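Intended use. Records like the one below are meant for learning the mapping from a protein sequence to its folded structure. Do not use them to infer anything beyond what is encoded.
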Amino acid sequence: MELEMINLSKRFGKKEAVKCTNARLTPGIWGLLGANGAGKTTMMRMMAGILDPSNGQVTYCGKDIRNNSLYRSAFGFLPQEIQFSKDLAVIDYLNYVAALKNVPPKLTKTRIDNLLSILTLEDVRKKKIVKLSGGMKRRVGIAQAMLNDPSVLILDEPTAGLDPGERIRFRNFLSANSSEKIIILSTHIVSDLEDIADNVMIMKDGELNRTVSKNEYDDLEKLYISIFMEEINK
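Structure written out for the chain above:
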């Protein structure tokens, strides 16, 4: 199983948000680390198939993800911002998303209950989402992304709004479930990746500056800072 970016780029007018990116992702946790505005969200939206590239392509198991029903059923996506219906409670929303994702009815309740437990949302399962705190809404977004037990899980700033305990539980859950999945976790917070990412892609000014495995660095934060200091010192 592979997710590959081949000469991938995206231009908005005169601005090239993502520049000729090449990467081959295999099962494990892949961190996407970069400052705000580095191009992470644009790249992840192309990987999710909701934004067409200006050039290049994204392939899953060798096939372009566009109009690829196999990929559609195999991936889950948490966008940076997610819109919820004003009228739906947490449980109703998750049942609705499960139906859209063709989760078998006999598995739906078990999966929802499991995710509500992991994400500490049991007490608000019948509460309307619009009345939840920002952190709780983020956790509902994480739950919907994982409902179909995806082989490819794309998470854009998933820990935004989570308290320290929730961050740890979420990271532990990802680590325990990453051996047969490709998980891409975008963040500008180094500590979200240090202990769990098998590989870290560092993005700067629309480019993948470098990709490092956990065996290739002693201090990810020091490496990250050094990359951004290179330009300042030029």
